[in-house]
Specification:
6-stranded mixed sheet; alpha/beta; globular
Length: 227
Protein backbone atom coordinates (compact mmCIF):
# COMPACT_ATOMS: atom_id res chain seq x y z
CA UNK A 1 0.00 0.00 0.00
CA UNK A 2 1.27 3.45 -0.90
CA UNK A 3 -1.28 5.90 0.47
CA UNK A 4 1.10 8.88 0.32
CA UNK A 5 1.76 8.19 -3.35
CA UNK A 6 -1.95 7.86 -4.08
CA UNK A 7 -2.67 11.17 -2.31
CA UNK A 8 0.02 12.92 -4.36
CA UNK A 9 -1.35 11.41 -7.56
CA UNK A 10 -4.85 12.55 -6.57
CA UNK A 11 -3.62 16.15 -6.22
CA UNK A 12 -1.95 16.01 -9.62
CA UNK A 13 -5.01 14.56 -11.34
CA UNK A 14 -7.37 17.17 -9.89
CA UNK A 15 -5.16 20.04 -11.06
CA UNK A 16 -4.63 18.66 -14.60
CA UNK A 17 -5.39 20.91 -17.60
CA UNK A 18 -3.60 18.98 -20.36
CA UNK A 19 -6.57 18.64 -22.74
CA UNK A 20 -8.09 22.01 -23.80
CA UNK A 21 -11.26 20.46 -25.24
CA UNK A 22 -11.99 18.49 -22.07
CA UNK A 23 -11.18 21.43 -19.80
CA UNK A 24 -13.59 23.64 -21.74
CA UNK A 25 -16.36 21.02 -21.77
CA UNK A 26 -16.18 19.99 -18.12
CA UNK A 27 -16.18 23.64 -17.01
CA UNK A 28 -19.02 24.62 -19.34
CA UNK A 29 -21.15 21.75 -18.03
CA UNK A 30 -20.35 22.81 -14.47
CA UNK A 31 -21.34 26.39 -15.24
CA UNK A 32 -24.53 25.79 -17.27
CA UNK A 33 -25.72 22.72 -15.28
CA UNK A 34 -28.69 20.48 -15.90
CA UNK A 35 -32.03 21.82 -14.70
CA UNK A 36 -32.46 18.97 -12.21
CA UNK A 37 -29.19 19.98 -10.53
CA UNK A 38 -29.41 23.75 -11.02
CA UNK A 39 -28.93 24.49 -7.31
CA UNK A 40 -25.88 22.22 -6.93
CA UNK A 41 -22.27 23.29 -7.22
CA UNK A 42 -20.62 21.04 -9.78
CA UNK A 43 -17.14 19.59 -9.24
CA UNK A 44 -16.04 20.45 -12.80
CA UNK A 45 -12.48 19.06 -12.45
CA UNK A 46 -10.70 15.79 -13.29
CA UNK A 47 -11.50 12.79 -11.09
CA UNK A 48 -8.93 10.70 -9.24
CA UNK A 49 -9.56 7.06 -8.49
CA UNK A 50 -10.91 6.00 -5.10
CA UNK A 51 -11.42 2.94 -2.94
CA UNK A 52 -9.41 0.53 -0.83
CA UNK A 53 -5.63 1.18 -1.20
CA UNK A 54 -5.07 -2.52 -0.41
CA UNK A 55 -7.54 -3.64 -3.08
CA UNK A 56 -7.00 -6.86 -4.95
CA UNK A 57 -9.47 -5.78 -7.64
CA UNK A 58 -9.20 -2.64 -9.78
CA UNK A 59 -12.22 -1.53 -11.82
CA UNK A 60 -11.48 0.70 -14.83
CA UNK A 61 -14.21 2.72 -16.51
CA UNK A 62 -14.18 4.99 -19.55
CA UNK A 63 -14.54 8.53 -18.17
CA UNK A 64 -16.74 10.58 -15.78
CA UNK A 65 -20.31 11.37 -16.81
CA UNK A 66 -20.98 15.06 -17.43
CA UNK A 67 -23.76 15.24 -14.83
CA UNK A 68 -22.54 12.30 -12.74
CA UNK A 69 -18.91 12.32 -11.63
CA UNK A 70 -18.30 15.75 -13.15
CA UNK A 71 -21.06 17.01 -10.86
CA UNK A 72 -20.39 15.00 -7.69
CA UNK A 73 -16.60 14.76 -7.78
CA UNK A 74 -16.39 10.96 -7.62
CA UNK A 75 -16.28 8.54 -10.52
CA UNK A 76 -19.55 6.67 -11.21
CA UNK A 77 -21.29 8.69 -8.50
CA UNK A 78 -24.64 10.30 -9.19
CA UNK A 79 -25.51 8.61 -12.50
CA UNK A 80 -27.33 5.48 -13.66
CA UNK A 81 -24.17 3.65 -14.69
CA UNK A 82 -23.01 4.07 -11.11
CA UNK A 83 -26.33 2.77 -9.81
CA UNK A 84 -25.67 -0.46 -11.68
CA UNK A 85 -22.00 -0.68 -10.75
CA UNK A 86 -22.37 -0.01 -7.04
CA UNK A 87 -25.47 -2.18 -6.82
CA UNK A 88 -23.39 -5.07 -8.11
CA UNK A 89 -20.39 -4.26 -5.91
CA UNK A 90 -22.72 -4.28 -2.91
CA UNK A 91 -24.30 -7.60 -3.87
CA UNK A 92 -20.87 -9.18 -4.36
CA UNK A 93 -19.40 -7.85 -1.11
CA UNK A 94 -17.11 -5.09 -2.42
CA UNK A 95 -19.19 -2.12 -1.17
CA UNK A 96 -20.94 -1.31 2.11
CA UNK A 97 -24.02 0.14 0.40
CA UNK A 98 -25.76 -0.27 -2.98
CA UNK A 99 -25.90 3.39 -4.01
CA UNK A 100 -23.49 6.27 -4.56
CA UNK A 101 -24.98 9.74 -4.83
CA UNK A 102 -22.35 12.11 -3.35
CA UNK A 103 -18.73 12.13 -2.17
CA UNK A 104 -19.85 12.23 1.47
CA UNK A 105 -22.64 9.62 1.27
CA UNK A 106 -20.80 7.06 3.41
CA UNK A 107 -19.86 4.69 0.60
CA UNK A 108 -16.86 2.50 1.40
CA UNK A 109 -15.23 0.00 -0.91
CA UNK A 110 -13.61 -3.18 0.42
CA UNK A 111 -10.87 -4.95 -1.56
CA UNK A 112 -11.83 -2.83 -4.58
CA UNK A 113 -10.55 0.38 -6.19
CA UNK A 114 -12.19 2.30 -9.05
CA UNK A 115 -10.50 4.47 -11.66
CA UNK A 116 -11.06 5.60 -15.24
CA UNK A 117 -9.06 5.64 -18.45
CA UNK A 118 -9.88 9.35 -18.93
CA UNK A 119 -10.37 11.61 -15.91
CA UNK A 120 -12.50 14.42 -17.40
CA UNK A 121 -16.03 14.20 -18.77
CA UNK A 122 -15.74 14.16 -22.60
CA UNK A 123 -18.33 15.54 -25.04
CA UNK A 124 -20.68 12.72 -26.17
CA UNK A 125 -18.72 10.36 -23.87
CA UNK A 126 -16.06 10.06 -26.59
CA UNK A 127 -12.49 11.03 -25.71
CA UNK A 128 -10.05 11.38 -28.57
CA UNK A 129 -7.01 9.09 -28.85
CA UNK A 130 -4.78 12.03 -27.88
CA UNK A 131 -6.90 12.75 -24.77
CA UNK A 132 -6.67 9.08 -23.80
CA UNK A 133 -2.89 9.13 -24.26
CA UNK A 134 -2.57 12.34 -22.22
CA UNK A 135 -4.42 10.69 -19.34
CA UNK A 136 -2.98 7.17 -19.37
CA UNK A 137 0.19 8.03 -17.40
CA UNK A 138 -2.03 8.72 -14.38
CA UNK A 139 -3.51 5.23 -14.64
CA UNK A 140 -0.07 3.71 -15.14
CA UNK A 141 1.10 5.32 -11.90
CA UNK A 142 -2.10 4.32 -10.12
CA UNK A 143 -1.73 0.66 -11.05
CA UNK A 144 1.90 0.79 -9.93
CA UNK A 145 0.92 2.26 -6.56
CA UNK A 146 -1.87 -0.28 -5.99
CA UNK A 147 0.57 -3.03 -5.12
CA UNK A 148 -2.04 -5.60 -4.07
CA UNK A 149 -4.09 -5.48 -7.27
CA UNK A 150 -4.23 -8.85 -9.00
CA UNK A 151 -7.45 -8.50 -11.01
CA UNK A 152 -8.44 -5.67 -13.36
CA UNK A 153 -12.08 -5.45 -14.44
CA UNK A 154 -12.33 -3.43 -17.66
CA UNK A 155 -15.78 -1.89 -18.17
CA UNK A 156 -16.16 -1.79 -21.95
CA UNK A 157 -13.79 -2.04 -24.90
CA UNK A 158 -12.28 1.44 -24.35
CA UNK A 159 -11.20 0.47 -20.82
CA UNK A 160 -9.99 -2.91 -22.09
CA UNK A 161 -7.76 -1.21 -24.66
CA UNK A 162 -6.53 1.29 -22.05
CA UNK A 163 -5.67 -1.58 -19.70
CA UNK A 164 -3.53 -3.27 -22.36
CA UNK A 165 -1.70 0.02 -22.96
CA UNK A 166 -1.15 0.55 -19.22
CA UNK A 167 0.28 -2.93 -18.73
CA UNK A 168 2.63 -2.40 -21.66
CA UNK A 169 3.82 0.88 -20.13
CA UNK A 170 4.45 -0.95 -16.85
CA UNK A 171 6.76 -3.33 -18.70
CA UNK A 172 4.40 -6.31 -18.62
CA UNK A 173 5.05 -8.58 -21.63
CA UNK A 174 2.47 -8.08 -24.38
CA UNK A 175 0.07 -11.03 -24.62
CA UNK A 176 0.07 -12.76 -28.04
CA UNK A 177 -2.30 -12.82 -29.78
CA UNK A 178 -3.80 -9.57 -28.55
CA UNK A 179 -6.76 -10.48 -26.28
CA UNK A 180 -10.15 -9.47 -27.67
CA UNK A 181 -12.68 -7.69 -25.48
CA UNK A 182 -15.89 -9.47 -24.60
CA UNK A 183 -18.17 -9.78 -21.62
CA UNK A 184 -16.56 -12.34 -19.34
CA UNK A 185 -13.40 -12.52 -21.45
CA UNK A 186 -10.26 -12.87 -19.39
CA UNK A 187 -6.54 -13.33 -19.77
CA UNK A 188 -3.66 -13.70 -17.33
CA UNK A 189 -0.38 -11.86 -17.73
CA UNK A 190 2.36 -11.33 -15.15
CA UNK A 191 0.66 -10.73 -11.77
CA UNK A 192 -2.63 -9.62 -13.33
CA UNK A 193 -5.78 -11.25 -14.60
CA UNK A 194 -7.85 -8.91 -16.78
CA UNK A 195 -11.60 -9.53 -17.00
CA UNK A 196 -13.94 -7.85 -19.47
CA UNK A 197 -17.41 -6.58 -18.60
CA UNK A 198 -19.92 -4.72 -20.72
CA UNK A 199 -20.05 -1.10 -19.53
CA UNK A 200 -23.12 -0.45 -17.31
CA UNK A 201 -24.26 2.37 -19.60
CA UNK A 202 -27.95 2.94 -20.22
CA UNK A 203 -27.37 1.82 -23.80
CA UNK A 204 -26.45 -1.62 -22.45
CA UNK A 205 -28.70 -1.88 -19.40
CA UNK A 206 -31.88 -0.54 -20.99
CA UNK A 207 -31.58 -2.95 -23.93
CA UNK A 208 -30.79 -5.98 -21.80
CA UNK A 209 -27.31 -6.39 -23.28
CA UNK A 210 -26.10 -6.22 -19.68
CA UNK A 211 -28.22 -7.69 -16.87
CA UNK A 212 -27.70 -7.76 -13.11
CA UNK A 213 -26.79 -11.49 -13.10
CA UNK A 214 -24.23 -10.81 -15.86
CA UNK A 215 -22.43 -8.00 -14.05
CA UNK A 216 -22.64 -9.84 -10.72
CA UNK A 217 -21.00 -12.89 -12.32
CA UNK A 218 -18.04 -10.75 -13.39
CA UNK A 219 -17.46 -9.42 -9.88
CA UNK A 220 -17.95 -12.84 -8.31
CA UNK A 221 -15.30 -14.10 -10.71
CA UNK A 222 -13.03 -11.18 -9.84
CA UNK A 223 -13.34 -12.00 -6.14
CA UNK A 224 -12.51 -15.64 -6.83
CA UNK A 225 -9.45 -14.71 -8.87
CA UNK A 226 -8.18 -12.18 -6.31
CA UNK A 227 -8.52 -14.49 -3.31
Amino acid sequence: MNEAGLRELEREVISCRLCPRLVAWREEVARVRRAAFATEEYWGKPLPGFGDPDAGVLVIGLAPAAHGGNRTGRIFTGDRSGDWLFGSLYRTGFANQPTSVARDDGLRLRECYIAAAVRCAPPANKPTPQERDNCLPYLVREVGLLESVRVIVALGSFAWDATLRVLADLGVPKPRPRPKFGHGAEFEIDRFTVVGCFHPSQQNTFTGKLTEPMIDAVFERARQLAS
